[in-house]
Specification:
Largest sheet: 8 strands, parallel, barrel
Number of helices: 14
Helix content: 40-55%
Shape: globular
CATH class: Alpha Beta
Number of domains: 1
Number of strands: 10
Strand order of the largest sheet: 3-4-5-6-7-8-9-10
Radius of gyration: 19 Å
CATH topology: TIM Barrel
CATH architecture: Alpha-Beta Barrel
Structural class: alpha/beta
Strand content: 5-15%
Distance between the termini: 28 Å
Order of helices and strands: EEEHEHHHEHEHEHEHEHHHHEHH
Length: 327
């Protein structure tokens, strides 16, 4: 697998990273261990998690799919992704081989961020994480406090590099300017949603990242599974165990006539060139030189193999040009 340096961090990561949002929510611990083992065996060493993974999402999944609406069951799943990764790291004794990223959900004040990183480190059973991110933009906390919070945890040695997820270009620029003005450690990595259907980072965010040597690790190359073609416009007919069944609000991002038309084009193109549609979708993201690594989620090793195959795919320039035209 091709390896790149992630922005200015010096971290070396493969073009495919492992997104761990499914851990403890859709798959149990043995399945998670098998996926992490398979990832490392295939050169995937970037693991992306968050304190939120396995909390409220696990509750909704258990209620929608398993029919469990018991707070005791839910509480056992809180922060399950971090906990499962922590147990795997200990059992495999391979912390030094993994580039580990986790995130703080809300309240990005220095005091709360300091408390949150300590809690994540305890669950992950490690002394540090390689990347620590704001999971989303916090408009309630002044930017000066936000950048100070990240700077403090980096200087503490508990975090090697600061990052943010789901920031737009203006929010990232504000943070970079505030860090620069105050002489603090800047954000070095960003994690945006990016796929054939969600391309809003192209005009401003990606150029800003290039200008400031901010690494880009994008997520959801399959549009939360929408690009698989398994959905119809009927929102009352979400297939069981799918992302939109677990979190129906995701449909608001993807359900439109234009996007359904793009899915049809993707699958027709896949039939024409003889390559699975999902590999084409992931391969298309990988063709963008501004994206350092693409996070692939998985419920099985087979799902991960799909991303691995996409990274190895011979992707002619004319394919990329045609697929770009759909946007």
């Amino acid at each position: 697998m091709e390896v790149r340096t992630l922005g200015s961090t010096g971290l070396r990561v493969g073009r495919i990273g492992l997104g761990c949002t499914t851990f403890g929510r859709e798959i149990d611990e043995p399945a998670c261990f098998a996926i992490m083992d398979h990832a490392v065996a295939n050169g995937i060493t970037l693991f992306d998690t968050a304190e939120a993974y396995g909390g409220a999402e696990a509750k909704q999944y258990r209620k929608n799919y398993l029919g469990i609406d018991d707070e005791r069951e839910v509480s056992a799943e809180s922060h399950s992704s971090e906990k499962i990764i922590g147990r795997w790291l200990q059992s495999r004794a391979c912390r030094d081989r993994i580039v580990l990223c986790t995130k703080v959900t809300t309240n990005h004040t220095p005091q709360h961020v300091a408390e949150a990183i300590d809690a994540s480190l305890e669950r992950l059973q490690t002394d540090y994480v390689d990347i620590y991110m704001f999971h989303s933009f916090d408009a309630e906390t002044p930017v000066e406090e936000r950048v100070a919070a990240l700077d403090r945890v980096v200087r503490s040695g508990k975090v090697r590099h600061a990052g943010c997820s789901n920031y737009d270009a203006a929010q990232l620029r504000e943070s970079l300017d505030a860090s620069r003005h105050a002489g603090l450690r800047p954000i070095e990595v960003i994690e945006p949603n990016y796929n054939l259907l969600v391309r809003d980072i192209e005009p401003a965010t990606l150029p800003l990242c290039r200008e400031n040597s901010v690494g880009v690790m994008s997520y959801s190359p399959l549009g939360a599974g929408f690009l698989s073609g398994k959905y119809t416009p009927d929102r009352g007919a979400f297939p069981q165990r799918t992302r939109f069944h677990v979190i129906p609000g995701h449909a608001d991002i993807y359900f439109s006539d234009r996007n359904f038309a793009t899915v049809e084009k993707l699958h027709a193109f896949a039939d024409r060139v003889g390559v699975p549609a999902l590999q084409l979708a992931i391969g298309w993201v990988l063709q963008n030189p501004a994206v350092d690594t693409v996070l692939a989620g998985a419920r099985s090793t087979t799902h991960l193999d799909n991303a691995i195959a996409a990274e190895a795919l011979d992707f002619p320039g004319e394919w990329y040009t045609e697929m770009n035209s759909w946007g």
